[in-house]
Design goal:
single chain, 234 residues, alpha/beta, Metallo-beta-lactamase, Chain A, six-stranded mixed beta sheet, 7 helices, 24% helix, 26% strand
């Protein structure tokens, strides 16, 4: 399995290419508008981009996922979670394959499983990545704006930044439940590959190292130290 991270310093935003060396297929997750960088990187590894997806609807940068899918002919996968107000407006026109909690798809020998992790946004998905050529359990999780290094995605941005009144507390409660579920289901050794680094407004205290593990975040991140939902929300 090939994993490449692309990092935009100005946006403190990370996107990823996951490739199967055996079949030459590749997935790009959370592409920004510079789609040629993914095409070039795939070509350098003798890969072709066959799948494109996003963890959630992005408000802090312009997504390149639709453009990349059109440019390469890749299948586009988008979240169908979160309710009517959180559908991708272009999903039908783009012929996107809609994902729900627990859905899976294959990129060569690599299995991707979508996990609904609402909180930062209602439709947010985290993607568990299993290298089927080596193991039958996930090696890593593409967490987007769900879990960062040392922090988690802010649940208050819809209300404070986007002006969607009355969403902050419900989002915080959803985030707490997502964190509890994810922690209970995933092993300590699971690698976490987040969508942002230090400097992003999507978290209040994101660390500067590029990745972490479930066990380390459970031990050190403030967000995993609360067993009571009301205390977490406050």
């Amino acid at each position: 399995m090939i994993v490449k991270r692309f990092y935009d310093e100005k946006l403190a935003q990370a996107s990823y290419l996951i490739g199967c060396a055996a079949t030459g297929e590749a997935l790009v997750v959370d592409a920004n508008r510079d789609v040629e960088q993914y095409v070039a990187a795939a070509g350098a590894e003798d890969l072709r981009i066959t799948h494109v997806t996003e963890t959630h609807i992005h408000a802090d940068f312009v997504s390149g996922s639709r453009e990349l899918a059109e440019r390469t002919g890749a299948a586009l996968y988008l979240s169908d979670e979160g309710g009517e107000g959180w559908r991708y407006a272009f999903a039908g026109e783009a012929g996107a394959i809609l994902l729900h909690d627990g859905d899976t798809f294959e990129v060569g020998a690599i299995r991707i499983r979508a996990v609904h992790t609402p909180g930062h946004t209602p439709e947010h998905l985290t993607f568990l990545v299993t290298d089927g050529a080596a193991a039958d359990r996930p090696i890593g999780a593409l967490t987007g704006d769900f879990v960062f290094v040392g922090d988690v995605g802010r649940p208050d941005l819809l209300e404070k930044a986007a002006g969607v009144a009355g969403t902050m507390e419900d989002a915080a409660r959803a985030l707490f439940r997502s964190l509890r579920r994810f922690r209970s289901e995933q092993p300590d050794w699971l690698q976490l590959w987040p969508g942002h680094g230090a400097g992003s407004a999507c978290g209040k205290g994101i660390g500067s190292i590029p990745q972490s593990t479930m066990g380390y975040e459970a031990l050190t991140s403030w967000a995993f130290q609360h067993d009571d939902e009301d205390t977490f929300v406050r």
